[in-house]
Amino acid sequence: MKKLDKNKLALAIAAPLLAVVAAVLITSLIILATGDDPLLAYQVMLEFGSKSDSQVWIIDKSITYYLSALAVAIGFRMNLFNIGVDGQYRIAAFFAAVVGGALTLPGFLQIPVIILVAMTVGALWAGIAGLLKVTRGVSEVITTIMLNFTAGSLIGYFLQEGRLAEKDGNIFHTPNIPESSHFFTFPTTPDPVDGFIVIAVLVGAVYWFVLNRTRFGFDLRAVGSSQSAAEASGVSVKRMVLTSMVLSGAAAGLVGMPTLLGDSYNYGNDFPTGIGFTGIALALLGRNHAVGMAFAALLWGFLDRTGSQLEIEGFAQEIVEVMKGVIVLSVVIAYELVRRYGLRKQQREVGAELAAQSAGDGTNDKAGVSA
Amino acid sequence: MANHDIDITVQGGTVHALVGENGAGKSTLMKILYGMQRPDEGTITIAGEQVTLGSPGDAIERGIGMVHQHFMLADNLTVQENVVLGAERLHGIGAAASRRITEISETYGLGARPGALVEDLGVADRQRVEILKVLYRGARTLILDEPTAVLVPQEVDALFDNLRDLKAEGLTVLFISHKLGEVLSVADDITVIRRGTTVASVRPADTTAKQLAELMVGSELPSPETRESTVTDIPMLAVDDLHLSAVDSSGDVRTVLDGVSFTVHKGEVLGVAGVEGNGQAELVESVMGMRTTDGGSVTLDGADISARSTRKRREEGIGYIPEDRHRHGLLLDAPLWENRMLGHVTEPPNSRGQILDPKAARTDTERIVADYDVRTPGIEVTAASLSGGNQQKLIVGREMSHQPKLLIAAHPTRGVDVGAQAQIWDQIREARREGLAVLLISADLDELIGLSDTLRVMYRGRLVADADPATITPEELGSAMTGAAGGHLEHESGDTGALEDTDSTPEDGATPDTDSTPEDGGDHR
Using the 8-state DSSP alphabet, how is residue B483 labeled? Predict the structure, then answer.
């Protein structure tokens, strides 16, 4: 027992270690190939990334990333590929901004209302894909991609003067939400840290608890592990698909909130896009694990922050994007390799244990055949 | 250690059968002969020449070909494409290949149509394509791994004709099976393998099925027989006029269950015999609530559960040992203690309210591992790393731990070694003594006859016959399974044919004589 646990720990450390070593190695080779010094690049990144204003920037950025990763991971845990987090968070943020801009309630009421609207819209948008999957058998991959475009067009339609937006320079945006609805911040120096980090940590904790400690989470994981076995065990797979899609969409609804409540205060055509896809990479990187994804989000924030600095220092501007790709690939491959190795090792150990138990007549293999 | 001290000599131009219980090491030996696994020690000699088989490629080069139990064909390709796939260098992929395939097919009477799509072929035809594939690659020795497991009796006869043709052309066939009747009818020589070693080589003329069985399992022949009857007259499961239709692969609506009615009483084991694919699996899934039936009712302990979900039915007290434990019984990547929760996650000790109780589940898993002799180094290992027999023991332990009123056992000892088999039989018998009702589906006729209090035969979605397990023989049961006989089957009563119309078979047709011995008054529950 003890021995197995120790192996488990060693394997758990081996995978990320292998991934990091491989990623650093490959990236270094690529930087070398572009004619630059990889060590210098890493030095620039570390120095710039560890400055205090960089730290705050990275943390703020990773809050959004983390929420997006969680939304994707809910689907991943039951083999649902929700590619639509991108559309879900945008349409959710848009309608939340519209409602927020129209109301003037006290902050302690209005902030929850805005967040609730966002989660509901996200859930409904994702629910369309879930419903189509359970009633018509349409793959959620197809529907969520298409719903991304639909969401974009819908927002584009409403985001015009005279509809739900106002013109501000050459940007159209929804009316600003009142100051009372601005989310609180931690008064750190030089810049404040967004208070939404509290919500992100909370959602991460709920994600972990629901998946690992509740019946619902067990059912969800069972469906992800083997749909047929889950069905035979009494899980209604269809209901589970719909529920997890809705939950994934509700979590996606949160993705735009740090920006809306703490930065832009409206939804304009300059609202950040593409974070849903980043979430897919981060869920892969963090192995759908609540803590793993937090590290992944911080790493991504770090790369974003230091990438621009690399460009200023004269490195190829694409180098950070290349790094990101290499990291995701290294992690996925390293984990799969370690998983397979662990499984084989475990099978061998079980076999050895059994052989030891039934030791006695164990002579050597001998096969003599003639035909 | 899967194999040790294996000595087997196969004469050229013969059909040589290799028999042994599940888990005796037959498959390991086959893998060694086909180069998929290397022996630690010992030699293989082909036609006087000692060889080393490092890969299937080596084996094919030496003229050894293997027909796997599970076909390895691409459904969306034609017969010809499947045959030439990977052997394009022999005769190309065009007309020359087609000619060669037709030639082989005619020589050995395989009746293959090179242009037919594999997905349109039946099981027996697919098997012939597999044989063709092997012959096309120039095999002179064919290894067939349990070729009859997937065939109905008529198809088995046809296969054996093919094997005789192969033999007549001078080819050698190594035939693996645990069905003794078949082995005796087709083999020239028989080698018996037990616990990884060869224990005897016999000729069919000098032996009987019973002697072979004893050689296979060793001195003590475990018997699934149940001694005294514990059947009560309290109905536990009543299935009434169940109808189910399904859409098959070609898009046709097919009746799968047609007016199935039966009652299982407390303390009774009702066995359902039948060739696989006649609706047994669908019957089980209907009773479990995994399929929506077109009509009929399912009553458990007096309550109509026809409209209830699978989970509700399990909570009401149905235990389920599924036919395919990998598909329906286990989460292979999950640790044993999570598998212990599967199917019973809503019940103690696995959860309290909506919250899981991993600590209690772990403790209880330790208990199951100890009580049911699951051989494992611990409960944190994944289910996939256990052997089939130990996986099955875990499932049986899990289902029995929730005091089921009704146990649905589909092939409960399939792929399980002899020791575990006897143990599982004992557990079913013991629970039955305490008033458990059991619906038993099995392809093993000895298991069915030995364990059941009442027998029914299923054929094409209908219960066509019933029999008294105390007097019936496997042969008589077998004839009803092919649809040749129906009604109430009586042993040696002159005619084993239909004594009464199948439709008028009373709902609990064969139970009266077993019902009449409720001496223990039924339940201790």
Answer: T
CATH for B179 = 3.40.50.300
User: Rounded to 10 degrees, what is the CA torsion of A171, A173, A178, A183?
Assistant: -90
* pLDDT tens digits along A116-146: 999 999 999 999 999 999 999 899 999 999 9
DSSP B207-239: --HHHHHHHHH-SS-------S----S-EEEEE
**β-strand B462-467 against B454-459: which pairing, if any?**
antiparallel
* β B44-46/A367-370 pair status: parallel
Contact flag A229-B1 (C-beta cutoff 8 Å): no
Residue A102 lies in a domain: yes
Amino acid at A13: I
How do residues B176-186 score in pLDDT, each as one tens digit? 876 777 888 88
Q: Which of A2, A219, A228, A366 would best serve as a mutation to test chain B binding (most B beta carbons within 10 A)? A: A366
* Enclosing H/E stretch for A57: helix A52-76
Instruction: Compute the distance between CA of residue A258 and CA of residue A269 in angstroms, rounded to an integer.
Output: 17
Contact assignment for A368 to B47 by CB distance below 8 Å: no
For residue B375, count other CB atoms closer than 10 A to its CB. 16
> CB within 8 A of A303, min separation 6: which ones?
A320, A323, A324
- Distance between CA atoms of residues A235 and A220, nearest Å: 9
Distance from the A333 Cα atom to the nearest Cα atom in chain B, whole angstroms:
18
The answer to whether B345 contacts A233, with C-beta atoms less than 8 Å apart, is: yes
pLDDT tens per residue across span B181-237: 788 888 899 988 877 778 888 888 888 877 777 777 665 555 555 567 788 889 999
Write b or e for each residue in B278-295: b if 16 or more Cβ atoms lie within 10 A of its Cβ, otherwise e. bbbbbbbbbbbbbbebee
pLDDT at A6 over 70: no
Top-confidence residue, B283 or B182: B283
A102-132 residues labelled b (16+ CB within 10 A) or e (exposed): eeeeebeebbeebbebbbbbbbbbbbbbbbb
Contact A234 B313 (CB under 8 A): yes
- Residue B377 domain boundaries: 325-402
Q: Which residues of A touch B5 (CB under 8 A)?
A: 363, 366
C-alpha span between B318 and B344 (Å, rounded): 11
**Rounded-to-integer distance, Cα B296 and Cα A351, Å:** 47
Please indicate, yes or no, if residue A353 is contained in any of the structural domains: no
Report the C-alpha gap between B522 and A117 in whole angstroms.
60
In chain A, the residue whose alpha carbon lies closest to the alpha carbon of B172 is A371
With CA atoms as reference, report the closest residue to A84 among B447, A92, B486: A92
Domain that includes residue A304, residue range: 37-315
Least confident of A30-34, A225-229, B8-12, B452-456: B8-12
**In a domain? residue A86:** yes
Cβ-Cβ contacts under 8 Å for B471 (sequence gap 6 or more): B490, B491, B492
Structure tokens at B77: 């390709």
Extract the tokens encoding A320.
């950070």
pLDDT digits (tens, 9 = 90+) for B91-102: 888 888 888 888
Token digits of residue B505: 């078979």
User: Is residue B189 located within the same domain as residue B176?
Assistant: yes
Please choose, from the candidates B41, A262, B166, the residue with its C-alpha nearest in 3D space to the C-alpha of residue B174.
Answer: B166
Residue A185 forms part of a structural domain: yes
